[in-house]
Amino acid sequence: MTVHLPGTREYLSPPLSALHAFVAAAQYMSFSRAAEELGVTQSGVSRAIRSIEDVVGSPLFVRTGRTLVLTEPGQRYLERVRRVLADLEAATVELANYRGAVSSLAIATLPTFGSRFLVPRLGSFMQRHPDVQLNVHSRIEPFSFDGSGIDCAVHYGVDAWSGAMGDHLIDEVLVPVAAPQLIDGIADLRQAFQSLPLIQHSHRPTAWREWLRESGWTHPQPDLGVCFEQYNMGIRAALAGLGVALMPEFFIRQEIDERLLVKLSEFRSQSRWSYFLVYPQAKRNNPVLQQFRLWLRGQVRSVLRTETMHGA
């Protein structure tokens, strides 16, 4: 007896064993040969075929003398069933090999985050997980994970992007820095700052105005200065003495420690944006992705502790 619970859907599909019996019978055009192939009785194959015919309401085979022949509906059904069974087998093989398949991880990252934060630290992840193949891609704009081959991405914005899960990594806190040769011998940096060129960033067009408003410093031309698309280029420009750059401190900690760049002020301005690790919901249980998430968040915590020790 079949019991249907209220609100449940009744699926019009024969048992998988019956479909295998049908395909075997069609292959050999013999119920007895199909029974031998499947290791069941001939009557079992007959019942399986009859159960399908009861569902579809149409005969699948007819006998002409002693010969078994597929009906026209049976032939069309056979073609579809073979494709379905092949797809099911492929899906099962893929799932069975899933643990091996997730030994690689494709990461998309913003160029500056990748070159100045992620790549210098990747060695520790690789030492912990030597069997994981990492593939790192550079992406600037948000994209659709569907069909991209990307497992996760480092995203910069006000929140995680649509259609993906996200972990907050770190806020963007900006400090003004310049090469030592640009400010050597200057006693009053705040006063001298007003005559120094500013380095601009096309993706943060209001950053200098916001920092000036919050810090109380002034500059006659806050919107002028050589403009770069990426922080990495702005950092190189500052190192070359082209002007004062407004930078996230965690990107330039090494340059500050080595006095390749000098902070003009200890005032830090937190922007409206933050960095996130985002990934599609379908990959949330991917074990390698989970390992990478835990590792990356640990790296961020280490950076935050360092910034706290430096007075951030």
Quick gist of this model?
Helix content is 44%, strand content 20%. The chain is of the alpha/beta class and 312 residues long.
Keywords for this structure?
D-Maltodextrin-Binding Protein, domain 2, alpha/beta, disordered N terminus, rod-shaped, 44% helix, Arc Repressor Mutant, subunit A
The CATH architecture designation of the largest domain is 3-Layer(aba) Sandwich
Quaternary arrangement of the chains shown? single chain
What separation lies between the terminal Cα atoms?
71 Å
* Uncertain residue segments: 1-9
Tally the beta strands. 11
Q: Classify the helix fraction into a percent range.
A: 40-55%
Would you kindly provide a written description of the structure presented here, covering whatever features stand out?
By secondary structure, the protein is an alpha/beta fold. The chain has 3 domains: 16-96, Arc Repressor Mutant, subunit A (Orthogonal Bundle); 103-165 and 274-309, Periplasmic binding protein-like II (D-Maltodextrin-Binding Protein, domain 2); 171-272, 3-Layer(aba) Sandwich (D-Maltodextrin-Binding Protein, domain 2). The chain has helices at 16-28, 31-38, 42-56, 72-96, 98-101, 111-128, 180-183, 189-193, 207-215, 231-239, 253-257, 287-309, and strands spanning 61-64, 67-70, 104-109, 133-138, 152-157, 164-178, 200-201, 227-228, 245-248, 262-263, 269-280. Strands 3, 4, 5, 6, 9, 10 and 11 form a 7-stranded mixed sheet that branches. A two-stranded antiparallel sheet has the order 1-2. Strand 1 (61-64) and strand 2 form a beta hairpin. Helix 1 crosses helix 2, helix 1 packs across helix 4 (72-96) and helix 2 (31-38) packs across helix 3. The longest helix is centred in the first third of the chain and has 25 residues, at 72-96. It starts with 15 loop residues before the first helix and ends with a helix. Mean pLDDT is 87; it is low at 1-9.
